[in-house]
Design goal:
7 helices, three-stranded antiparallel beta sheet
Length: 314
């Protein structure tokens, strides 16, 4: 089983695991890959599954989403990394993307049997960006511990490079307290320096179209400037522990899909917080923000006096 972990070199790199069919056909490979992936998530807060999705599926979705972005004026004022959602209807739905078998198994190991898919969204790194996104994590005050409140599954639709703004992450930062940030996502230069002294930050330049990245929602990260002339789109599927009740319980509580696709959004291993809207008018998904329908999870969220948590993309 090939991997690209480099723990012997001062733990500077993260784990890249080859999950192509050739690798999975090796006896015992699947169990070993799952073991390594879960170990990497606990140690680094992130893991990359190489060759996880057929490139043709990714290319088809990229073509559709680029066309959608061409057709809609997106307000980037509130968020420079904002994007439209992926189309939640045929022929653009793929179980190899949404319910990727290895990704689901890793989620179940980390989050338990209540693992719930609550977001089917995307981020876009736009051309002409000059400044990086502020380093942040997606749940500002989640406590340090062995079990994350949730993970995000990122699927790049084009290869990540330094030039197109590959996301910068701080490996192992999911184990770092952020009390000094006082409940915000704005980390001080001192906090960033101390974290970098523990383990240097790195950009995810080893991630290609067809790869799949799983990241602990507590991991420090931020988008970097896209200096190319082309948009870089990355899918973002959030899977949460639906029983998490921390002080900053994640606001990711569900998304919309089209009536007629109900069978697709059923999985025997993972729950899905999805609300179905009538087919016809598809403007509901052509919005530059996360979907927030009144699913059971969201109704429970409001019933407990919670308010949506402002979120950053990428």
């Amino acid at each position: 089983i090939r991997s690209h972990s480099n723990l012997r070199q001062e733990k500077k790199l993260i784990e890249y695991l080859d999950v192509s069919h050739d690798e999975l056909d090796v006896p015992g490979a699947r169990a070993m890959i799952l073991h390594r992936a879960v170990g990497a998530m606990r140690r680094d807060g992130i893991v990359c599954l190489k060759h996880a999705i057929p490139s043709g599926l990714v290319a088809e979705l990229n073509t559709k989403m680029q066309a959608d972005l061409d057709s809609v004026q997106v307000d980037r004022t509130p968020n420079s990394w904002i994007s439209l959602r992926p189309p939640p209807f045929d022929p653009y739905l793929s179980r190899e993307i949404v319910y990727n078998e290895l990704a689901v198994e890793i989620c179940l190991e980390l989050l338990g049997t209540g693992s719930t898919l609550t977001t089917y969204g995307a981020n876009t790194s736009w051309p002409g960006q000059r400044t990086p996104q502020s380093t942040h994590r997606d749940v500002p005050d989640a406590p340090v511990g062995s079990s994350p409140p949730g993970v995000v599954i990122n699927i790049p639709l084009t290869t990540f490079t330094t030039e197109n703004g590959a996301t910068q992450i701080y490996p192992g930062s999911h184990e770092t307290s952020v009390e000094d940030a006082q409940g915000t996502r704005q980390y001080t230069p001192k906090m960033l320096e101390e974290q970098a002294n523990r383990r240097p930050p790195l950009q995810l330049t080893g991630v290609e179209s067809g790869d799949l990245v799983i990241r602990d929602l507590r991991l420090w990260h931020g988008g970097m400037p896209n200096k190319t002339s082309e948009r870089r789109i990355m899918l973002a599927l959030v899977v949460i522990d639906a029983d998490y009740r921390g002080g900053d319980e994640s606001g990711f509580k569900g998304f919309e899909a089209e009536q007629g696709s109900e069978a697709f959004w059923q999985d025997s291993r993972m729950n899905t917080a999805v609300c179905f809207v009538p087919a016809g008018d598809r403007s509901y998904y052509l919005l530059g923000k996360h979907s927030e329908p009144l699913t059971v999870l969201r109704k429970d969220w409001f019933a407990r006096g919670k308010k949506p948590t402002p979120r950053s993309n990428d």
